[in-house]
Each structure stands twice: as structure tokens, then as C-alpha cells.
Design goal:
single chain; alpha/beta; six-stranded mixed sheet; five-stranded mixed sheet; 18 strands
Length: 447
């Protein structure tokens, strides 16, 4: 069954320009609250958000919805997505809510929901909520003293800072390291610099002046140019780039080179393998991860379990097959010993701990393999199903045959934007470029 409101990562879209409106947020609050109200006790929900201006509007609408069905609301304020997941468990909430569109432009926003155990909702739970949203819920609203109340939780940030620090061994100390942290003017603009400073690092912060409109704008993990420039300017040991809701991270080494999620997963997996703490005999990544990562793991006697794109699918495979390291090339890294979702800050701490322990430059520690030439291009479309076109299917099949065993194609629709993503990789960079260009041109003509 198709979903009407939910996409691959909650509900996301242009605020007041489509389905994401105050009315929808109100319905989400009421329907989700009713779906998770079980038993006769004081139910509660925690709500965090990033720094988008529209967060105030959506927060108030969700609060109205939850309190209308008798749930108490704990407002966390600007808070990373993984912090909301952690606090949902820590504060014994029935539901966790993150208001964010992650790496999208400021005009977009979204609603992510977490279960009491801190994991994102299953497809069946989302379908149940959608069914309730389309019903008349008036007769089921709370009345009188049963209406919920809302309050702000001032200590939420401190709780998350301490939690993040405790993911490291107590002896880990970053004294002597100069760290530039780019918080994308987003949800971690207070928490991330605080964590690194308390662990002893010299911290230079950028992207920590949110105004409601500048989230992800020219900064953060999607646009690391400013971070690269700053790392070189101050001669930092490492640059760390988070995205708007801090569930993903990229690294910049001391030379100004960007280190993606594939390399970071390789660093952590090798370190944990040598320490005897890696579970599952390898790691989980998506079909977008570089062939070089797979070859690196093969050489270490470790496995790579691939999934479809989306951190929820990575996590499903990790839980189902006993892995404790997984993630995406984009920097969503899930370390299930500590988190129930991607956590950019916790992943960065693990990488920096390896750097400190080995006493070598980041450019050496974080270059575990030579990436296979890879090209990703996007094609925007307005309607229809271009990938179902007969000629497109024939071209893709012929292109896969040309790449053979030394390359791959991954072609898919984005789950968050009206885009078709065409990724090709292989040992022959020229052939990869030629194949991807032909497919992109053909899809653009159909689209």
C-alpha cells in the first residue's frame, strides 16, 4: 500500500506550498497521539526542532494536536535529530518528534517520528497514522482535565552533551587538537562545539549563527567549501561538517580534502575490529557506497551488506543481521552500540578518538582506500515515471553490460525531492562518464 503523507524519512516538503501546513501538523499530532496512547497513565511526547523559521509554526500545531488528545508535551527547542531519539528513551516518552528537513533548503521542513525505544516508525505504524489523519477525530479528543499540557525542558541540551561524551572511553582527551566545527547554522549549533571543547580540543566554530533562513546555506556537510577554507586558514588538525539536523557528518583533513562517509565507516570498522568490538563481521552500507569500500573490507576479511538508499533500511539490516556499524556515503553513520539513528557528532567523536590514539594526521588515518571513480548526476522531473519508459530500460541494461564486473550503475528516484539520481562507478573513469551522460540525457528527454 502506498503512503499518502509519509516519505522515506517522515513527512517533508515545502512549508505552506504543498502538503506540509499547520493543519497537517495538527492532524499528525492528534493521529500519532491516539496511535501511541496505550494504557491509563500520563502520556508524554518530546518535540525537538532545527533552526528553520517555520519550526515555530509546526511546533505549535503539533503541540496543539498532541495536547488535544491528552498527551503532555516536552519542548526541547533546537536539538539534533539523534538527541531527540536519545531523549525519547531517556525521558520515557511515548513518542519523539523532530521538526526538520535535514539538509534541504530553509523553505522546506519536515516531521520525523520516533517510537518509545528511539527507533523511527515502521511502515505499518505510518500507515496507521495516515488512516487516522483522514478520519474525523473530534469524538476522540480529550476534554476537561484530560487535555494535555506543554512545557519547555531547559536541561535537554546538557543531557545530550553528557551522553555524547560518554560514548568515548573516560581516558580519551582531545587536548592538543585544533578542531573546526561547521554546524550548518542548524540544530547542533550549541551542542557540538560544547562537546569538543569539554573534551579538551581547541574549537573554532562556524555555522553557529542561525537566523531562521540560513540553515545549510553555503555551509555544513552539503557545502563544505567554507569549512575547507577555514581549516587551511587556521591550520586546523581536522574540520567537521554537520548538516542541518546533525544526523550526518563529513570530515575535512588538515590538507583541505573532504572525507566522506565511506572512508569514515572504514576507519571506525577497522578500529572496532582490531579492538574486538565490531559485530556482524563487517558493516552495512547502501547501494551508493563506493566499490573501493567493498574491496577494502574484503582485504580485511570483513563483509559489506548493501541495502537500498535510506538510513532506515541500513538500520533494519543492522538489527536483523547483528551489525553495529552502518551508514551512507553521505555521512549518515549509525553506531548501534550508542544510537538508534544516524548521529554526526558521535561518529565524529569516534573518528577523532582514532586520530588521537594513532598520533597521525587525519589525511593518513582517514584515507583507508582509493575510491573507484564515481559520478552522480540528478535529473529533475515534474510528473510521470521516466524510469518505466521502455527505451530507458533498454539503455540502462546495455550500459550495465558495458561496465561489466568492474563497474556498477545505481539509478533511482529520490525519496525526498522530484529527482532521479543516476550514479555510475567503475575502474574506467572515461567509460563511467560516458555511460552516465547518455543515461542522464535520455531521462531528461523523457522527463
Amino acid at each position: 500500500m502506498g503512503r499518502k503523507y509519509f516519505g522515506t524519512d517522515g513527512i517533508r516538503g515545502l512549508v505552506n506550498g504543498g502538503k506540509l501546513t499547520p493543519e497537517l501538523a495538527l492532524k499528525v499530532g492528534m493521529a500519532t497521539g491516539l496511535s501511541f496512547k496505550r494504557g491509563d497513565y500520563a502520556h508524554r511526547v518530546v518535540i525537538g526542532k532545527d533552526t528553520r523559521r517555520s519550526g515555530y509554526m509546526i511546533e505549535n500545531a503539533l503541540t496543539a494536536g498532541f495536547t488535544a488528545v491528552g498527551m503532555d508535551v516536552l519542548l526541547l527547542g533546537p536539538m539534533p535529530t539523534p538527541a531527540v531519539a536519545m531523549l525519547t528513551r531517556s525521558m520515557r516518552a511515548d513518542i519523539g518528534v523532530m521538526i526538520s528537513a535535514s539538509h534541504n533548503p530553509f523553505a522546506d521542513n519536515g516531521i520525523k517520528l520516533f517510537r518509545p525505544d528511539g527507533y523511527k516508525l515502521s511502515d505499518s505504524s505510518e500507515l496507521e497514522i495516515e488512516k487516522l489523519m483522514d478520519q474525523d477525530l473530534g469524538p476522540r479528543l480529550a476534554r476537561g482535565q484530560k487535555i494535555g499540557r506543554a512545557r519547555r525542558v531547559e536541561e535537554a541540551r546538557t543531557r545530550y552533551v553528557e551522553y555524547a561524551k560518554r560514548t568515548l572511553h573516560r581516558d580519551v582527551d582531545f587536548t592538543g587538537l585544533r578542531v573546526v566545527i561547521d554546524c550548518a547554522n542548524g540544530a547542533a549549533y550549541k551542542t557540538a562545539p560544547e562537546v569538543f571543547w569539554e573534551l579538551g580540543a581547541e574549537v573554532i566554530s562556524i555555522g553557529v549563527s542561525p537566523d531562521g533562513y540560513n540553515i545549510n546555506e553555503g555551509c555544513g556537510s552539503t557545502e563544505p567549501a567554507l569549512l575547507i577554507e577555514k581549516v587551511k586558514e587556521v591550520r586546523a588538525d581536522i574540520g567537521i561538517a554537520l548538516d542541518g539536523d546533525a544526523d550526518r557528518v563529513l570530515i575535512v583533513d588538515e590538507l583541505g580534502n573532504v572525507v566522506d562517509g565511506d572512508q569514515l565507516m572504514a576507519v571506525i570498522a577497522q578500529s572496532w575490529h582490531e579492538a574486538g568490538t565490531l559485530q556482524g563481521g563487517g558493516l552495512v552500507a547502501t547501494v551508493m557506497s563506493n566499490l573501493g569500500l567493498q574491496r577494502f573490507l574484503d582485504n580485511k576479511g570483513l563483509s559489506l551488506e548493501r541495502t537500498r538508499v535510506g538510513d532506515r533500511y541500513v538500520l533494519e539490516a543492522m538489527r536483523g543481521k547483528g551489525f553495529n556499524v552502518g551508514g551512507e556515503q553521505s555521512g549518515h553513520i549509525i553506531l548501534s552500540d550508542f544510537t538508534t539513528t544516524g548521529d554526526g557528532l558521535v561518529a565524529a567523536l569516534q573518528v577523532l578518538a582514532v586520530v588521537k590514539a594513532e598520533g597521525r594526521a587525519v589525511s593518513e588515518v582517514c584515507h583507508k582506500f582509493e575510491p573507484v571513480p564515481q559520478l552522480l548526476q540528478n535529473v529533475r522531473f515534474q510528473r510521470g515515471k521516466p524510469l518505466e519508459d521502455k527505451h530507458i530500460k533498454q539503455l540502462i541494461a546495455a550500459s550495465e553490460a558495458r561496465l561489466g564486473e568492474n563497474g556498477r550503475l545505481v539509478i533511482r528516484e529520490s525519496g525526498t525531492e522530484p529527482l532521479i539520481r543516476v550514479m555510475g562507478e567503475g575502474d574506467d573513469a572515461g567509460l563511467v562518464n560516458e555511460v552516465v551522460s547518455e543515461i542522464v540525457t535520455a531521462i531528461a528527454q523523457v522527463a
